[in-house]
Write a structure and sequence with these properties.
Length: 81
Amino acid sequence: MTEHDPDYEQRMIAVLISTHPGWRYEACDLPGLPRWWATRYYPLRPGQRRAGARDVLGRTTLRRLAGALARHDEILHQLRY
């Protein structure tokens, strides 16, 4: 299994959906842009943005996106959201 295997990608997306359900996940194959994107279903509050939280995250791999989402959750947890 590799990160470009469709079965791996589907399983990883299923894990992301169950672990981080407040996001929509999609792939984008445009040159120069990250391949995987997560977009929040609901916008953040200004205080959350000032703390470093984002409405959209993009990374080159699903593994890196999972790490970014985990760090994002830590930011919100520290704010008690």
